[in-house]
Design goal:
Elements lengths: L1 H23 L5 H15 L4 H12 L7 H23 L8 H6 L2 H25 L5 H34 L9
Helix pairs in contact: 1-4, 1-6, 2-4, 3-7, 4-6, 6-7
């Protein structure tokens, strides 16, 4: 079972990455980008590390819902990529930044990617067990452990992301339009 668990995890990690990339390749109009940036600015106004953690956790926990979590997770990946595409419209200097580099080259990006992949893949495992009419009791403990891992990853990732944002602001790296 553990070997299958690892394989399912990496399959959904790959699907998350593909969905994110597809979202980042979306064509975004100036109007859509400006509307997104207005919402984004309101969302991140006075956000702190715990706020980042809470935001990411409210996205991640529904990913554990059997069946629904797969669709929710892939939609979250696509919409995050779409958000990147929107930011590029308002800050064209980011156009040369490969969207996947944000996931794979930032420590908090890797933490979030792993956390979301845990949730999506567990959702798949649970819906598969339900469809096969399996006893769900053996799935309780591993699901709770994975939820704990996800919360831990997102908590650490939220604090790390906030620290890196503050550091970038202090160094003047975030003096671009829209930020």
């Amino acid at each position: 079972m553990n070997k299958i668990r690892v394989i399912v995890f990496f399959i959904f990690l790959g699907l998350f990455v593909v969905s994110y990339q597809l979202g980042s390749m979306s064509t975004v109009s100036d109007e859509e980008a400006n509307a997104f940036m207005a919402e984004f600015k309101e969302l991140v106004l006075d956000i702190d590390a715990f706020g980042i953690f809470l935001h990411n956790t409210t996205i991640a926990l529904p990913m554990f819902i059997p069946g629904f979590g797969v669709a929710w997770g892939l939609f979250a990946a696509w919409s995050t990529g779409f958000a990147f595409a929107s930011i590029v419209v308002t800050a064209p200097q980011l156009g040369d930044v490969p969207p996947l580099s944000i996931l794979f080259l930032s420590p908090f990006g890797l933490m979030e990617l792993a956390a979301y992949s845990f949730g999506i893949s567990r959702s798949f495992i649970l819906i598969r067990a339900i469809s096969k009419k399996m006893n769900l009791v053996p799935f309780i403990k591993p699901t709770l452990i994975e939820i704990g891992i996800v919360v831990g990853l997102l908590l650490a990732g939220g604090y790390l992301e906030f620290y890196m944002i503050e550091l970038a602001q202090e160094e003047g790296l975030m003096d671009m339009p829209g930020f």
